[in-house]
Amino acid sequence: MTERRVSLIGALLVAIGPVSMALYTPAMTELVRYFDTTPSVVNLTLTLYFGGFACAQLIAGPLSDALGRRPITIIFMALYCLGSILAVLAPSIETLIIARVLQGVGASAGVAISRALVRDLFTDDRSSRIMNLIGIILALGPALAPTIGGVMLQSFGWRSTFVLMALIGLIVIVVAIFLMKETVVADKSRLNFHALGRNYKMLLTNKHFLTASLVIGGALGAIYAQSTFLPFILMGDVGLSPTQFGASMLAQSGSFFVASLACRSLMARHGAYRLVAPGLVLIAIGSVGISTLLIWPPSFLHVMVPVSIYSCGIACVMPAMSTAALAPFGRAAGAAASMMGFIQMGSGLLMGSIGAVMGNAVVAMGILIPIMGAVACISFLMFRKISYPPMQEVVSGE
Predict the structure, then answer these.
(1) Is residue 165 part of a domain?
(2) Which domain of life is it from (predicted)?
């Protein structure tokens, strides 16, 4: 498959998880009223979605190594569609929670398989270009999804968003059947849980992989953690309507999109690696801005300006660090991509869960997101000290 086709398919696979999150978030305050429950219970529908998304990646990636990328994509997307339909029919908040877990499990294959596809076919600077293009396309979905979700909520009710998700899942299945070519030779001998355990142990004790993945976990994982805080801050504390909240999320996704475009141009002249340090500076600045929520009350600009700066930093960091983390692992690309995705999503899940226990979204965001920014920066400093071969060589293929 060409770079362009891999980029488009990879972006579609990656986007289904964040889009399913972004379409849904404007409805969270409405669900509190509809099911006559509490914000903490409704927050579980998002937290457990993350849980299914994060943990199932550890299975989806290795299954795709053993059985092929295409069949596993189709099976997991069918499970995602089943969860979407169950959500449409949900008579209670408990049923909706189960449906969201099924959606998270189904969507998990997208992250693991998209990155494995790239690793199967490309390992040099082309990989970073594809990761960057995936990021650009990925930004469009979450940028528009909250706005679409807010409009659909006010026009057709919250169930309509899950109808749209089911249709998106069907589109992914059609793409996998007709446009996605198989990139690995199926080998059922890889379905060995002892060998899989050894692979994961090897990855978690590999300092190169672990530090690179923690950079991504602290950077990109913050997006998922923020999604559990922002609806309650912007709609609850700032007072935005669901439609206004959806439109406000364009600041986050739009800044990521613009920064990704700028990075694509800069990568051609300077290489992906040189953008990581400036990106982490932006993440540090955004973290400091978010921490001021502990001092001054939230307003739209007070919240979204530092969030947007943080998002610009993520766009600079993600292409090179994703390539660097996966570069040494050819045969175990699916397992490595799964573990990297688990670390990324797991960090967001952990901080979102801690925030839910804290009970105050403003305080949680002001403390936990800066911690994630610090993890990204410290992990990169450690990565530079222990990585071999040098990162420039890993990313450029020298």
Answers:
(1) yes
(2) Bacteria
